[in-house]
C-alpha cells in the first residue's frame, strides 16, 4: 500500500471545478479563521449531495497535502493555483520552470516534518531492542518471536495469509485484521520492506512482533493522517499459511 504524494499534488480532476470557484474568493475569507459575525458562514457545511461530494474531494486533497504542513498563506497560494488552472485563467508562473521544482520542494518539507518522528522512533527502537528475545536485524528492524511456528518459512516471492495488528509507538492501533476478524492474503514482495524481510524469518503457525523504523515502513511520507512521516511502526503478526 503506497501513496505517491507528488502525483497527488499534480493530479486534479475536472470534478474540482466548484472547489476551484470557491478557492477563487479572496484568500482572507477562506485562509484564516472567521471572526464574530462570519462564524456561522464559516461553519456551514455543504447541503446538496453534489456539494458534499465536492467537499469530499477537498478532504481527500487535504490528506494528500497534509505531510507538507502548509501554512494558511501556503494554502491560499495553492488554492489560487487550483482556481487559475481549472478555470482557464492565465498562469501566474511558468509551469515548465516551476513544475520540476515540486518534487524537491515536497521532499524537503517531508524530510523536515519527519525528523522529530525519526528521533522519537530511534529512541523507541533502542528501548525495544533491549527487551529479552528481541533481535535487531541487519537492516535495522526488530524481530521478536512470540510463538514458534512448525511449518515452512515463506520466500519473498510467496503469497501469504496472515493475521496482524499494527500500532504506533504509543500503542494506538491504526490497522488490525484481528479486530476485523478477517485474515488478509498478499504477495510478500508487495508490502513494506519490514514485512517482506520479517515474515521470511517466521514459520507457518508462528507469531512474531516486528518493530519497523520508517525507512523500512512508510518513510518520510507516512500515511496521513494516522501515520505521520518518519513514524516507527509495531506489528504483531501471525503467519497462518503460505498460499499457492
How does this model look, in words?
The two termini are 22 Å apart. The N terminus is likely disordered. The chain contains ten helices and seven strands. Helix 2 packs across helix 6. The protein is 40% helix and 18% strand. A hairpin with a 4-residue loop joins strand 3 and strand 4. With 244 residues, the chain is α+β, with helices and mostly antiparallel strands. The protein folds into two domains: 95 residues, no CATH class; 129 residues, Roll (Chitinase A, domain 3). Strands 1, 2, 3, 4, 5, 6 and 7 form a seven-stranded antiparallel beta sheet that branches.
The structure class reads alpha+beta
C-alpha-based Rg, rounded: 22 Å
Q: How would a crystallographer describe the biggest sheet? A: 7 strands, antiparallel
Q: Name the CATH architecture of the largest domain.
A: Roll
The figure for the number of domains is: 2
Number of helices: 10
Shape by Cα distribution: elongated
Spans of at least 5 consecutive residues whose pLDDT stays below 50 are 1-42
Strand content: 15-25%
Q: How many β-strand stretches? A: 7
- Helical content (DSSP H or I, runs of 4+): 40-55%
- On the 0 to 100 scale, the average pLDDT is 83
The CATH class of the largest domain is: Alpha Beta
The separation of the N and C termini measures: 22 Å
Named CATH topology of the largest domain: Chitinase A, domain 3
SSE order, as H and E?
HHHHHHHHEEEEHEHEE
Amino acid at each position: 500500500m503506497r501513496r505517491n504524494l507528488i502525483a497527488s499534488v499534480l493530479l486534479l480532476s475536472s470534478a474540482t471545478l466548484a472547489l476551484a470557484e470557491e478557492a477563487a474568493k479572496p484568500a482572507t475569507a477562506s485562509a484564516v479563521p472567521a471572526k464574530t459575525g462570519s462564524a456561522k458562514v464559516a461553519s456551514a457545511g455543504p447541503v446538496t449531495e453534489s456539494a458534499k461530494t465536492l467537499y469530499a474531494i477537498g478532504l481527500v486533497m487535504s490528506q494528500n497535502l497534509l505531510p507538507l504542513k502548509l501554512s494558511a498563506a501556503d494554502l491560499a497560494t495553492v488554492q489560487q493555483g487550483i482556481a487559475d488552472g481549472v478555470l482557464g485563467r492565465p498562469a501566474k508562473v511558468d509551469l515548465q520552470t516551476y513544475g520540476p521544482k515540486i518534487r524537491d520542494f515536497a521532499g524537503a518539507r517531508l524530510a523536515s516534518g519527519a525528523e522529530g518522528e525519526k528521533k522519537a522512533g530511534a529512541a523507541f527502537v533502542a528501548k525495544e531492542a533491549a527487551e529479552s528475545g528481541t533481535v535487531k536485524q541487519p537492516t535495522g528492524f526488530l524481530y521478536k518471536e512470540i510463538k514458534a511456528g512448525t511449518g515452512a518459512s515463506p520466500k519473498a516471492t510467496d503469497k501469504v495469509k496472515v493475521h496482524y495488528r499494527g500500532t504506533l509507538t504509543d500503542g494506538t492501533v491504526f490497522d488490525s485484521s484481528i479486530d476485523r476478524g478477517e485474515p488478509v492474503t498478499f504477495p510478500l514482495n508487495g508490502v513494506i520492506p519490514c514485512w517482506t524481510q520479517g515474515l521470511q524469518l517466521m514459520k507457518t503457525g508462528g507469531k512474531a512482533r516486528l518493530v519497523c523504523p520508517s525507512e523500512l515502513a512508510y518513510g518520510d511520507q507516512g500515511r496521513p493522517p494516522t501515520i505521520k512521516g518518519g513514524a516507527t511502526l509495531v506489528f504483531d503478526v501471525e503467519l497462518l499459511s503460505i498460499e499457492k
